[in-house]
Inverse folding.
């Protein structure tokens, strides 16, 4: 194929993709009216949903940041025969349908579940259909993202720095705190921001364990199905802006690092 | 009291990286590990430092068994080829890293920081980050970082390879001075034969994880045990020849394409040999007057000086500085000889002119030659 033909093909694909990916955003902006959207968002019920979403997403991200970083460290520096299997296992939520993930969480942490059952019978603690369940579902879905970010961050630290730290008398923990974490901070931060964006936008798994509680995506679904376009538009635009900001932040961190 | 390795082997998967390496190095002495890339030099240091674990064999230092100990317990200093300075810390924090890890007192930290940084002349660089330092300065900081811990054993993995020639010379002198001053037992890895000759009390040549020769630098360079070692230590003239006569007092008489030579270093049984002549051991005599000395003084002894005639100069290869490598040829036999570049500049030596060479009989070293050995012409570098 001649070069100019290929260039033309690329241009056509770019334009078609732009049209396809851009149309939902244009449609949202067209449907959204500022006055209607603002009054819908100022509704007390909607505000509660936004605050619930923010807090649960923050809690899930915090948990995922700690657990994901530790697991990322383990998969980078403790490679053995089983670690490849384990890493694949921990990455499963990335590809698993979120509804299946939510259903499995119900089976594990529900009132009659594998862990939830004994918890309820012994301590009368119920996890499902509470804010804890939302955190749990989001944590389950976003932790693999954090593991990937942490693994990638630790792999980028030159091996000689870790060896140098050990040769100078520092143990694994000191090396982790003084060498690995500071050098991996930008990538870990970018991973955490991405995890937060994914957590706040999580729908399938959260839906299965939320009960009567609502998060922003659940609210959008309910309102869109119920014909309340004002709230659905406002919340959708809020998520679009949030996601855009998050991606910009990740890009800025990446550029600064570069 | 020494550092001793007993039959140390190391594998990665099925690949044998170190194959039963044994060595004994007296405390306070230095050993240069010389070898090609992939010979296992760096891995040997890592195994000694405990950075690469699960080796076979034993490592003992001053009757202390290091084999099962962690890197922290061994307390061995390690200087890396790429400096391995922590980029997010200043030079001061880098140097104090080990003392902080050992929870040293402020007084102790100050004392050793001041002493070592003054010694290495980096006290004015302490507030800079590694990215703000030159390669030589970074390597000094890396050296200081190891030395503040006063290690009894210091391992250096090609510490000069990333530096320019001038910095290399300065740092080589500094490392040698510090090693002697603090009586550190030092293992120094390099693939540079010049560095090996200068830095080590002993030299060990490693090939494919095996020790192929170990001894004092003069023995390794003047009497290589194999053609690999001869080639690797830049012997340059490795010529096929044969022993035609053996004499207990006068050594062996050798014949090769360029003439005949007497050698004091030859195998007992072999007739076919490789004749090893280092270019710095051959002396050029420009004129053909025949007045060159017939013997060379070695202390109280006199050694027979061989004369080779009829060689013509084919080219000069500048070596940078005051020496030049001269390529000579006679009846298909090529020789490489170092001489002063002044002689070329002043027109004493010109391409095409015939010269005479002398080489002392104790500088002519022979190695056994197999029938299927391939002859390699002298190489130029």
């Amino acid at each position: 194929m001649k070069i100019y033909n290929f260039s033309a093909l690329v241009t056509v694909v770019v334009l078609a993709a732009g049209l396809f990916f851009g149309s939902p955003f244009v449609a949202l902006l067209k449907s959204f009216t500022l006055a209607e959207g603002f009054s819908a968002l100022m509704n007390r019920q909607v505000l509660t949903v936004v605050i619930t979403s923010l807090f649960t997403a923050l809690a899930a991200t915090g948990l995922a940041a700690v657990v994901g970083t530790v697991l990322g460290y383990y998969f980078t520096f403790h490679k053995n025969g089983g670690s490849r299997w384990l890493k694949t296992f921990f990455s499963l939520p990335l590809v698993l349908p979120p509804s299946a993930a939510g259903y499995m969480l119900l089976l594990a942490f529900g009132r009659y579940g594998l862990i939830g059952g004994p918890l309820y019978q012994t301590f009368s603690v119920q996890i499902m259909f509470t804010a804890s369940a939302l955190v749990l579902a989001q944590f389950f879905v976003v932790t693999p993202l954090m593991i990937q970010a942490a693994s990638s961050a630790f792999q980028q630290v030159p091996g000689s720095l870790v060896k140098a730290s050990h040769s100078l008398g520092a143990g694994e923990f000191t090396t982790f705190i003084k060498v690995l974490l500071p050098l991996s901070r930008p990538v870990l931060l970018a991973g955490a921001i991405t995890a937060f964006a994914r957590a706040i936008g999580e729908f399938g798994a959260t839906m299965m364990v939320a009960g009567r509680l609502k998060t922003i995506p659940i609210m959008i679904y309910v309102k869109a199905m119920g014909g309340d376009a004002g709230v659905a538009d406002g919340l959708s635009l809020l998520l679009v802006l949030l996601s855009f900001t998050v991606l910009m932040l990740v890009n800025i961190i990446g550029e600064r690092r570069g | 009291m020494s550092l001793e390795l007993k039959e140390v082997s190391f594998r990665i998967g099925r690949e044998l990286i170190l194959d039963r390496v044994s060595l004994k190095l007296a405390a306070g002495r230095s050993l240069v590990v010389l070898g090609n890339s992939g010979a296992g030099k760096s891995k040997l240091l890592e195994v000694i430092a405990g950075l690469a674990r699960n080796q076979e064999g034993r490592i003992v230092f001053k009757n202390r068994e290091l084999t099962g100990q962690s890197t922290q317990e061994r307390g061995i200093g390690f200087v890396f080829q790429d400096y391995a300075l922590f980029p997010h810390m200043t030079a001061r924090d880098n140097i104090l890293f080990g003392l902080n890890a050992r929870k040293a007192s402020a007084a102790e930290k100050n004392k050793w920081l001041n002493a070592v940084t003054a010694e290495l002349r980096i006290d004015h660089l302490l507030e800079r980050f590694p990215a703000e330092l030159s390669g030589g300065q970074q390597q000094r900081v890396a050296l200081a970082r190891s030395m503040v811990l006063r290690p009894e054993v210091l391992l250096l993995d090609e510490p000069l390879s990333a530096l320019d020639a001038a910095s290399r010379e300065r740092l080589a002198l500094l490392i040698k001075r510090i090693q002697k001053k603090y009586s550190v037992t030092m293992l120094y890895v390099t693939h540079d034969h010049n560095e090996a000759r200068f830095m080590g009390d002993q030299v060990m040549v490693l090939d494919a994880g095996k020790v192929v020769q170990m001894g004092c630098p003069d023995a390794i360079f003047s009497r290589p045990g194999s053609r690999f070692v001869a080639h690797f230590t830049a012997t340059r003239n490795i010529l096929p020849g044969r022993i035609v006569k053996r004499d207990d007092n006068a050594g062996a008489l050798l014949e090769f394409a360029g003439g005949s030579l007497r050698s004091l270093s030859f195998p007992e049984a072999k007739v076919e040999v490789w004749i090893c002549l280092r270019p710095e051991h051959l002396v050029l005599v420009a004129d053909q007057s025949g007045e060159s000395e017939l013997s060379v003084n070695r202390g109280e002894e006199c050694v027979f000086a061989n004369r080779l005639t009829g060689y013509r100069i084919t080219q000069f290869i500048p070596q940078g500085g005051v020496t030049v490598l001269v390529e000579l040829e006679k009846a298909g036999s090529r020789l490489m000889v170092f001489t002063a570049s002044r002689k070329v500049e002043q027109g004493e030596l010109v391409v095409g002119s015939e010269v005479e060479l002398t080489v002392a009989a104790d500088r002519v070293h022979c190695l056994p030659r197999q029938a299927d050995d391939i002859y390699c012409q002298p190489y130029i570098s």
In short: The interface with chain A takes residues 46, 49-51, 71-72, 75-78, 80-82, 84-88, 97-98, 101-102, 145-146, 149 of chain B (CB under 8 Å).
